[in-house]
Amino acid sequence: MADVYNIGTLTGVMPDDPLVIDIGANAGFFDILLLSKTKNAQIYAYEPLSSNIERMRSIASSNRRFDKSVTINPFAVTGTPCEMLRLYAQDTEDNQVVASSLKGFNTDNTKELWIPAVSFSEIMAGIPKAKVDLLKMDCEGSEYDIILNTPPDVVRRVERMLVEVHDIDSQFNVITFSQYLEELGYHVSYMPINGFCYALEACKK
After folding, report:
1. Alpha carbon distance 128, 117 (integer Å)
2. pLDDT tens per residue across span 108-126
3. What 3-state class would DSSP assign to 166?
4. Is 171 left (phi over 0), alpha (psi -120 to 50) or beta?
5. Please, are residues 112 and 87 in contact by the beta-carbon 8 Å criterion?
6. C-beta separation of 197 from 168 below 8 A
7. Which of 205, 77, 47, 69 is nearest to 143 (CA)?
């Protein structure tokens, strides 16, 4: 399993028992990598697609550490509160890697799904600690809604972020996203993954 998040370096700058929120957990790949480096992480994983949730639950059933450390939440995450979120996904029964709330995000996303949703503010209200050590987001365009429509004082409770950021248009792109986080008091760096997608890291100054 490729360590695209440079987990070894990441765990070196976090506490031994980090509290982590994983939005867009897919089948739990990031969580498995993180737990391979730090045994005491507490991870709240959010994933909207049923096929991915089933895979995570299968992993949990056979991996005691994963089961103990990862709380699986079958929800889409939003910034603006709503009960259900419409997602556009690939029309396949296989592991659905790409699903987005943006209709034109991917031409392969021809299937409409209505998924129970929870806002990031609601998630943070239920967090037992004052701060979150790491927020990881891989949510195919929803990073803008989640961060921009969450009150700044709630966002600032996050010490560090790893975000897959997509260039959507002149208003929603990695430059404007980075500038907003810098205004909130984060140091931001990013590198390209492909022509319109970036791996962004932000940490509190």
Report:
1. 21
2. 788 899 999 999 999 999 9
3. strand
4. alpha
5. yes
6. no
7. 77
